[in-house]
Amino acid sequence: MPKIVALIPARYASTRFPGKPLALIAGEPMIRHVYERVARARKVDEVYVATDDVRIAEAVEQFGGRSIMTSSKLKSGTDRCASAARKTGAEIVVNVQGDEPVISPKTIDAAVSALLSSRGNVMSTAAVPIKESAALFSENAVKVVVDRTGRALYFTRATIPFLRGVPRDNYLESYGFLKHLGIYVYRNSFLQKLTKLKETPLERAEKLEQLRVLENGYSIKVAVVEGDTISVDVPSDIDAVETYLSKLNSKK
């Protein structure tokens, strides 16, 4: 089996939420919640936080995690993962966003399995069926459409596909829409190549980095999973995460 390393890119300077990785959720820093969930994935051999800030690295060390320091000049989480991956000897790299404190280990395993299902796959991700209209028509919820083999045709902030002749109120019951989840799995050789590709027109228009992959002729395998996740973009999102965790703990 190839060596599979999960990397969690985390930076302190966030425009909408400075210090986000260290924000407390149920008494623990968010980066710990993400790290421990990723560590529970069965198909991951090693987990590291890739950061440019010593405060984050120290917080990770305090709860027993491992981190890799990267340059503060790197522009994106993908660049940070690529830089850190070169220090790990990984053949497969799992990029889990640092603001996904309730991501399911099963989702991570499914995304890894999607990549490993064929030697021809260079990248994979995950998606979940949309069950609420609020997500379906929100530009903050990225949608994905796939072909019959499970490869992504397009990612967009718009509602896709357009259902001609179907009222908006009937969209959910008329088609199986998919919401993209913030996880990527790469063959390390492809990840290093990806960071050298220039920004593409669709990527620039939608502000979605994964479109660079499609526009350059590569494919992305999509694992459709059951469990949704809650991203933390602004401080108010923490309440939703804590409510979710409280319900989860009450069921145990």
What can be said about this structure in brief?
With 252 residues, this protein is of the alpha/beta class. The chain has 10 helices and 11 strands.
Q: Care to describe what's here?
A:
The protein is built from 10 helices and 11 strands. It has 252 residues and is α/β, with parallel strands linked by helices. The protein has 2 domains: 1-100, Spore Coat Polysaccharide Biosynthesis Protein SpsA, Chain A; 104-182 and 189-228, Spore Coat Polysaccharide Biosynthesis Protein SpsA, Chain A (Alpha-Beta Complex). The strands form 3 sheets. A 7-stranded mixed beta sheet has the order 5-4-1-6-10-7-11, with helices on both faces. The model has no long low-confidence stretch (mean pLDDT 95).
Summarize the topology.
Blueprint (H helix, E strand, L loop, with lengths): L3 E7 L13 E2 L2 E2 H10 L6 E6 L2 H9 L4 E3 L7 H9 L6 E5 L8 H12 L6 E7 L3 H4 L6 E4 L5 E5 L14 H4 L3 E10 H7 L6 H6 L4 H5 L5 E4 L12 H15 L1
Parallel strand pairs: 1-4, 1-6, 4-5, 7-11
Antiparallel strand pairs: 2-3, 6-10, 7-10, 8-9
